[in-house]
Amino acid sequence: MNRPLIAFTFVAPALAFLAATLAWPLVSAFLLSLQNVRSVGTTGTWVGLENYQYILANAAFWRSTGLSFGWVIANAALQTLLALLAALILHQKFPGVRVARTWIILTWIVPTVVVVMIWRWLFSTSGGMINPILIQLGIVDRPVGFFATPESAFATLVFINSWRWFPFIALMMLAGMSRIPSDLYEAARIDGAGAFKRFTRITWPLLAPTLTVLLIVGTLLSFNVFDVIWLMTQGGPAGGTRTLPVLIYETAFRSYRMSEAATIAVLATALLMSFAVLATRYLARSGDER
Amino acid sequence: MRRPLRWSIALAAGLLVLAALIGLPFWWVVSGAFKAPQEIIARVPTFFPQSFTLEHFEKLLSASDYLTYLVNSVFVSVLSALVTLVLAIPASYAFFRLTFRGRETLYRVILLAYAFPSIVVLIPLFATFARLGLVDTRLALVLVNVAFALPFAIWMLRSFFASIPREIEEAARLDGGAPLTVLLRIMIPLTAPGIAAVAIFAFVTSWTEYVFASVMILSDAKRTIPVGFSGIIGQYQVDWGLLLAGASLAILPVVLLFALIGRWFVTGLTEGAVK
Amino acid sequence: MKKQLTLLLAGGMLAAPATAIADPVEITVWHMEQPPHRVERIQSLIDEFNAANPDIMVSQEPQNWGEIYAKAPAAVAAGTGPDMLFAIPDFAPILKDIGALESVADFVEELDGAHDFVDSTVEAYSYDGGVWAVPLYNMTLNLWYRESVLEEAGIAVPTSWEEWRAAAETLTTDDQFGMGLPANRQLYTDQTVYSVMVNGGASEIYNEDGTLRFDNPETVAAYEFYNSMMEFSPPDAPSWTWGEAEACFASRSCAMVMQFTVISTYENQAEGDASDLGVAAIPTSDGSDDNATIAYANAVMLLSDDEARREASKEFIRFLLQPENYGRFLNMEPGLFMPVTADGAMAESFWSDPMVQEYRDQIETVIANGQNGRLFGFTSGRVYPAIAAISAQNVLAETLQSVVVTGAEPADAVAAGQDRMADLSR
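Predict the joint structure of the above. Result:
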């Protein structure tokens, strides 16, 4: 029996599938970036690295890159915080914990289009619930335009995206927590360690590997978030939420510069790839130590 | 194991905040769907509906093919979940248990699939699908959704396999079981909850996908729920009542689904566990 | 355009080809009128047409404006596009660019002879030596208000910018905004901004030689004025699209809005008192009465190469523009879509709709306002392909945002806007 061959037949279908659906389009995107194609369906000529020169010198590209970094970091921070709190709560024993664990996921199973519509409505000044509540609580005295300034629109979008994702991450964390042997906690309790100490000495260090995995995949996924931003603000106001995926879509389908869009995409991919390679290498190392 | 009172209070408060954060938006949407139009856009919104009407639902159901969208969504999502499993289970088993050259490198390459903006593949993929006659087919959506769910599914599964003690597998192998037999007879049954969780992950990924579904599908009869839903958002007018009714009906199927299998998802995740 | 002698021939052309043989020609129409009731109305017209023309089989596939810019070129390039595709002027150049369009000048001339098109609607599709789409319906922006609200505040309908601002100021109270104006980077804002520009003498974006003339004192003045109105508009206006403006008006949060129509929302979601709903032309900078507005002539493009399918598509368009059908087509959204033909504007099928009857005064005003309709980048025959990208990137709205949102000086913002247009024209 030929073991490597069997292994290969196990892996090959998945690999072939990913190559056909993801790798090949990526190659064609790279080829596209070396041409000067405008709208979809037209042809162009080869221009070498001209697009790269143009994009790298373009202020809008760098602004979007900065926004994408901010987006990833803000989302990671808020989602980790919310998810950790939720996971800690759901890790306790209380009546109805099963129900809570099941239904926390509600935000994640709703189509993004619906998520966007829900929040668009709730934040609006005509009929939305948020403004009247803020006014009644005396936090503001005039309705607030949540998408009125670049900063508040950005923050609101981070909130919406995190709202959608944090329950999923909380469950992943809960999964990590449930693998921590409970006798560790018992022992700590007997040693007289308080709840806070138990968290910092046991939960946190043992959860760290799970968190690292989630952080890496979460970073890649949230970097690529497009539909929520596009459907909510189309990158506005004043370009304040135009992250790289939005810029790519806009360049391709609004400015009709397919090749420039492909160039941005290739650059963004290079950026993410280097992050992912470093991160998975780190992961592989910490995995060996285990 | 009794909890001090202040912790119970903190826990209750935390739960309350959590419930409000997740539950309130849904309450407003679903209750709003039954309000009369004037009440929906009233300057001072009402927490409990003061009026009751089914007109939004009637309008939605009479004039849009909600049922068709639902059937399409279910079809695409179920098939995506199945194909994802068929591809992911052997692959992740091979990555975890069988040794072969370049294993770690390949494994990492698969994870890199998430490293490029999915929006990039839209156009090349459209062109390829057009050549294969796949544009405007639900199969095209299945292919795309599997591509997006597969890498994470492999990752999740690998750690589920990792939680099976090596001895069990060794014993089976010593009894002369071929890898495929070991996988089918031992590994899959033992990681069943985890596999269910991965299937649900793939299902939801597909259920919520919007961008590709909106571009790849041309005809109304093949639209999925997210795309069908975006269709009722008018260009020049927004009928909030209709939208809220549409949102409620778009939420309903997955809520029903989770009422049935939601527990498995959680137990699958927690028992399979991610490293 | 003048009515021509072809009028006499029109009757003959309308008769369906008598040679009904074998399989019917199957043709598809894509349109972006996706709300269910509009789809339903279009379907009933299609059913009628199919019944009367056994050799043709029309079917519709409603699409979404949000995706059509990506989808249509991709589908056409892949050979999976429709036979007919609805369009707005800035969308047509994209398809023309990829070689999907042939001039329909002859066909439009034939129809003009039969029904007499409103000139500006044809103009929006006439450039580069051809006519690229057949006008179907018109949309124009107007100023909407409630008579009672203005009366109570003791103000008259504004006719100049100065009066307009004064009215907005007076009408802004603790629980009401004087004038709901969007500042989103989106088509609606393009439309409102241009409607102000065009009433301040800044209707042209291009000089006759094709160079840009967006950056001029009139444009700057229009942006200055628009910006000064924003303080009377709700705080979430930077994210508004049409729907929010209507909701604001319907809920009485906004005293005035600039909108194509508010009729059906007003009827269904607000008090629906026809006698209280006021509509006026958009005020001019100096109060003169040559008010202009933005006009969106929606049209249909013919995409198939195949002669039989093309002919079948034409047959369907002829059917739609027939006065006895045309009104029902327009009234798929009563009060929103205005006729582009002279005989359509008088058609019984248009005026007999109950809601149109109820709001007859308002609709007549809207049609009258539309006579002086313009569209940025499609004026005076000065049309250049880059306008497609300029519209799609919403440069007018983008410029407004840099004034309203980031607080740039209007003059600087307009200069930057022109640079942006130049960059998109590369």
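DSSP finds 13 helices and no strands in chain B.
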